[in-house]
Specification:
Elements: H1 12-20, H2 31-45, H3 55-58, E1 64-65, H4 74-82, H5 91-98, H6 112-118, H7 133-140, E2 146-151, H8 157-165, E3 169-175, H9 178-190, E4 197-201, E5 224-230, H10 238-251, E6 252-263, H11 278-284, E7 291-302, E8 311-321
Helix pairs in contact: 1-2
Protein name: Methyltransferase domain-containing protein
GO molecular function: polyprenyldihydroxybenzoate methyltransferase activity
Pfam family, one: Methyltransf_25
Length: about 325
């Protein structure tokens, strides 16, 4: 099979992307509600479900770890819209907000509250409904085998692609935002991939392994062969990224690899995530800390076409645990 066939124009990802291009409102509800209904209808169009079916029905039977999740309800949506710090939940307003300095804390990192509130809506600029180009390239280079951890998987497009394209990979996709896993589960169900990956709601900043789900708990120490980080590391402050890297180090086996795609300092437009220089990355992943940076490549972070014309300058780092 040609790997490009895995993201054909008739796929659910493309349907969802087309649905998201129209973000009008209903007279009696916030814009996000209609957008989510459009996504739901796109999912149902490719399955046996009727357009009135819920997201829960779309992934009926899919085993979410640690628990089954529900869609963001109208009450929660109203609470978000009443918060003056939250942009209006439409494609245009979210993209404008994230592409501005308002998206950053005083320390220059994305505001965690905003990041959590827009993630999993299908409207964030990084939710492009297809795998990132660097992930497709890594698949062609046969970089994924054994146990693969997608750290900060978002709505699951990278994880689903790797699980489909790499039969030798056992993928565990993790995110702290439940809505992201709900979206990923719906896509997995539609593609008949319910048994091909695990979806885990967990906080990778939690360094007490006993507080994490079993898939990431003490018995999983040293059990992963590869970690995929697609735009996760560059969202953290110094303190948070140290905790994140500590968790990755515990989970990764000796000799295991991290493929980490981060926005670089060569991307000078305002907003977006933290920029990561080569020196900055090497200061964290250094020999003294038990890491070796095996490779640095020019890369891009792909985004929604209305945000920064669809891509930003980035680097792909290959990091080995020693």
């Amino acid at each position: 099979m040609d790997l490009e066939d895995l993201e054909s124009p008739t796929s659910t990802s493309s349907c969802c992307a087309r649905a998201l291009s129209d973000s009008g409102t209903e007279a009696d509800g916030p814009k996000l509600v209609q957008s989510r209904l459009q996504i739901n209808e796109a999912i149902c169009a490719g399955s046996a479900l009727s357009p009135g079916s819920s997201f829960s029905e779309a992934f009926e039977g899919f085993s979410l770890l640690p628990s089954r999740l529900n869609s963001l309800g109208d009450e929660a949506l109203s609470a978000l819209l009443e918060d003056e710090d939250v942009p209006e939940l439409t494609v245009d307003s979210i993209h404008k907000f994230i592409g501005s300095s308002r998206y950053h804390t005083a320390g220059g990192v994305p505001r965690p509250k905003i990041l959590a509130q827009v993630s999993g809506t299908g409207l964030a600029p990084w939710e492009i409904h297809r795998p990132q180009k660097f992930v497709r390239d890594l698949v062609l280079r046969r970089c994924f085998s054994g146990r693969v951890l997608d750290a900060g998987c978002g709505i699951g497009d990278n994880a689903l692609y790797v699980a489909k394209a790499c039969p030798g990979a056992k993928v565990t996709a993790v995110d702290v935002v439940p809505r992201c896993l709900e979206f990923a589960a719906a896509k997995a169900n539609l593609r008949n991939m319910r048994n091909q990956l695990d979806l885990v709601v967990a906080d990778l900043l939690e360094n007490d392994s006993g507080c994490l789900p079993p898939a990431l708990g003490p018995n999983s120490t040293g059990s992963f062969d590869v970690v995929l980080d697609s735009s996760t590391f560059h969202c953290f402050s110094d303190a948070h990224r140290d905790r994140y890297v500590s968790t990755l180090r515990r989970l990764l086996r000796p000799g295991g690899l991290i493929y980490m795609n981060c926005m670089s300092e060569e991307e000078t437009r305002p907003g977006g995530p933290r920029r990561i220089t080569i020196a900055d990355l090497r200061s964290v992943f250094c020999t003294a800390n038990g890491w070796e940076v095996d490779g640095v490549e020019d890369s891009v972070v792909e985004s929604h076409p209305t945000f920064w014309a669809g891509k930003a300058k980035a680097r792909l780092f290959t990091i080995r645990k020693i």
